[in-house]
Each structure stands twice: as C-alpha cells, then as structure tokens.
Design goal:
- By secondary structure, this protein is mainly alpha-helical.
- It folds into two domains: 180 residues, Orthogonal Bundle (Preprotein translocase SecY subunit), CATH 1.10.3370.10; 229 residues, Preprotein translocase SecY subunit (Orthogonal Bundle).
- Helices cover 71% and strands 6% of the residues.
- Helix 10 crosses helix 18 and helix 16 packs antiparallel against helix 17.
- The radius of gyration is 25 Å and the shape is globular.
Length: 447
C-alpha cells in the first residue's frame, strides 16, 4: 500500500513545478553557482604555460593525476585557480570526524549542539587552509620542474611564483567551499557533492568522444566499446537498486488510555539503508590517497629515490594501490555509518517515547540488536562499494578506459542525482501541502 507522500509524488506534474516559485529560485541559484564554478576551471594560474602542461597531462592521464583531474573537473590539467578543487576541505572534514571519534574534547563539542557544530566547522576551515597551503606549495615546486618538448612549464620560477600559486589555489578552494555552503543553504541538494558531480558530468562528453576515437583508431575493439557501454548502464542500474535497498525494522507502540479514548497501539518501522554511508567512502578514500600522492607524482624522478618507488607502487592499477584504495573504502564505510547512526541513542529515543522492537527488550538489548543488524548491512554495503570501485579500476588500468566510466564516478553521479531529485520532490510535496492547507482555510472562511 503506497503512502500518502508516495501517492502525491506520483501525481506531481509540470504544473505543480511551475507554481513552486521558491523551488524554481533555488534551482536557478544552483545552476548559476555551478556555472560560476565551471568558468573558474578555465582561468589558468599566473606564470605558467598552459600548452606545456596540457602536453604533460596527456602523457600522464592514466595515472593518479588523471584521477585527481577527474574530481577537479579538468581544472588540474588546465592548472586553473580551482586546481585543488574541494578535496582539501574533504580531507579536513575526514580528519575532524576522526578526531571527534577519538578525542574527548571534540566529542564534547559535538554534543553541544548548534554551538559545538559551528566550532567544529570553524576548526575544519582552519585545517582546510593548512592543507591547501601544503598541497599548493608542493604543486608549485612540482610545476617548476616540469617540462616537455615545447619547453618549461614555468617561465620565471622562484619564490614569487610559488607564493602566488599558494595564495591563488588556497583562495580558489576557500571560494569553492563557500560556494558549496551557499548551494546547500540557498539552492537545492548538497553543494559540495554537486560541485564534484558537475566536474565529472562536464567531462563525460569528451570522455565518450575519446573512447569512440580509440575505437576508430583500433586501440579498442567495437565489441569492447559496446561491452563498456552496457557495463556502465548495468552499473548504474545496480547502484540505483542498492541505494534504494533498506531493511525495515518494525517498531511497535503500546496502547495508552487517555480519558475515554485509547491512544497509540500503531506500528511503524525504522528504515536502515543497505549503504548508509552513501558516496562518502569512495570520495574520502580518494581524497586520502590523493593528498600525499599528488606531491610524489609531481616530484617523481626529481625527488628522493624512496619517493619515486612509493609513487610507482601507488600507480593506477598496481596491487598496492588497489589494496590501499579498497581498504580505505571499507574502513570509511564502517566509520561513516558509525558517525551518522548511533544505535544506543536510537534505542534511548525509542524507549523514551514508548516504542519497542517486537521480541526485543527496550534499552540495551534494543541497542545491541540495532548494532548487530546495522553491522551486517554495512558488511554488505562495504562489499558493494568495494565491487563498484574495484572492477572498473581493473578495466581502466588494463584497457586505458577513461576515468569517467569508472565505478567511483558513476557512483557519485547517480547518488548525488538521486539525492537532488529527492530534495526537489520534498519541496514539491511541501508546496502541494501548503496549497491544500490554504484551500481548506478559504473554504472554512466561506462556510
């Protein structure tokens, strides 16, 4: 039996969207902000030769830099003001969440509510600046040593060039961080996720054209290209299926007598998603890997021998890289699930309002039951994420398929799209409910 909300969602049409003025403003604001982001990815850093950098990135597009460039929406390959993208902020968020789990002081801040959350956000911004400065300085040093057949990448290397790169890249990341927050507050969807998705989607046409070009030149067979497209569609279907999958735990409320009326006694359910962590684990894992590897990749061949060795072992498709990447994905699947869902807190809230799981005692037993169910779901969810991220990695390293057809990129695009559509439907439902309430009030006055 479909719920009232599902029935309303099914009946939504273009007319309802046309009347939702607030929703249209939010969508236009989001589109405008994403256009500003895309324009920024084409503004190059001062003092570099874009043609030399483009030639260098063409030679290294199958490596870790190519993956970083995918998340940056091509901004790294063009070495634009948004070359670092939003990744330093994600890295800072990871570190702060880890600190919240192990530091009593940070955990106390987290429990303070809104004021504690603001302080944690402030610390996250400070840490973002520190990470930006370190990464930007490493990139500036690496660019100075780059050269191709066309000449050196930097015309006038030196401390002035390095400081200008650090200031520009740090400012670009902070602007994107602010832009993402504005999209979340005044637009539609999660701003940070939409910025990452916009970069991936913007390069999908060129990736498709590149794949077809490989087929035309004979580098890839026609059969393999068809298989790749079918696999991409099947991967999208599989992602949608798993992301919608959930375990519904029955919650029962006892009957209570108030005066002459019997209250309560109804059944509800607690939905637990199969993949509670969503798209966060692959993004976090990629961010953690990209942070140290970026500097190593830029300085490969010019730095210490151990750095060159580490960069080789962590190359795209290498066993060490795959093991580290999948291990990080699994770790963050469990870690982020533990952050967003607290079984003890949920069990206490159920006990407070008189709810209980049939056959399970309220309180500690309910918490243990929820934790056991959630752990089993997370095992399956982590396996699903590992499969989605691993199989395309093998295809990419074996056949040099563009990153944009990989599992991580498809997972980000599909999941963010689903979340954004769900928010649009929520706004439309709220608008329809408001319209029904207004009509009922007008009829009441006339009566």
């Amino acid at each position: 039996m479909a719920s009232a909300a599902e029935q309303l969602a099914a009946n939504m049409n273009f007319g309802a969207f046309a009347k939702a003025t607030e929703l249209k403003k939010r969508i236009w604001f989001t589109l405008g902000a994403l256009i500003v982001y895309r324009l920024g990815t084409f503004i190059p850093l001062p003092g570099i030769d874009p043609s030399v950098l483009a030639d260098i990135f063409r030679q290294n597009q199958g490596g870790i830099l190519g993956m970083f460039d995918m998340f940056a929406g091509g901004a790294l390959g063009r070495m634009s003001i948004f070359a670092l993208n939003i990744m330093p902020y994600i890295s800072a968020s990871i570190i702060m969440q880890l600190m919240s789990a192990v530091s009593p002081k940070m955990e106390a801040l987290k429990k303070e509510g809104e004021s504690g959350r603001k302080k944690i956000n402030q610390y996250t911004r400070y840490l973002t600046v520190a990470i930006c400065v370190l990464q930007a300085y490493g990139i500036s040093v690496g660019i100075e040593g780059m050269s191709s057949s066309q000449g050196a990448a930097v015309a006038t290397p030196g401390m002035f060039f390095r400081m200008s790169v650090v200031i520009t890249l740090t400012g670009g990341t902070l602007f994107l961080m602010w832009l993402g927050e504005q999209i979340t507050a005044r637009g539609i969807g999660n701003g940070i996720s939409l910025i990452i998705m916009a970069g991936i989607v913007a390069n999908l046409p060129s990736a498709l054209a590149g794949t077809l070009e490989l087929g035309r030149t004979g580098a890839l067979s026609t059969g393999f290209i068809i298989f790749l497209l079918v696999m991409s569609v099947a991967t999208i279907y599989f992602i949608v299926f798993v992301e919608r999958a959930q375990r519904r735990i029955i919650i029962q409320y006892p009957k209570r007598q108030r005066g002459n009326k019997m209250m309560g006694g109804e059944n509800s359910h607690l939905p637990l998603k199969l993949n509670t962590a969503g798209v966060i684990p692959p993004i976090f894992a990629s961010s953690i890997l990209l942070m140290p590897i970026t500097v190593m990749s830029f300085s490969a061949g010019q730095g210490p021998e151990w750095m060159t060795t580490v960069a080789a072992y962590l190359g795209r498709g290498q066993p060490v890289y795959l093991i580290v990447y999948i291990s990080l994905v699994v770790f963050f699947a469990f870690f982020y699930t533990a952050v967003v869902f607290n079984p003890e807190e949920t069990a206490d809230n159920l006990k407070k309002y008189g709810g209980f799981v049939p056959g399970i005692r309220p309180g500690k037993n309910t918490a243990e039951y929820l934790d056991r169910v959630l752990t089993r779901l997370t095992v399956v969810g982590a396996g699903y994420l590992a499969l989605i991220c691993l199989l395309p990695e093998l295809l990419i390293s074996r056949f040099s398929v563009p990153f944009y057809f990989g599992g991580t990129s498809l997972l980000i695009v599909v999941t963010v799209t689903m979340d954004t559509v769900a928010q649009i439907q929520s706004h439309l439902l709220a608008h329809q409910y408001e319209g029904l309430i207004k009509k009922s009030k007008l009829r009441g006055r006339r009566g």
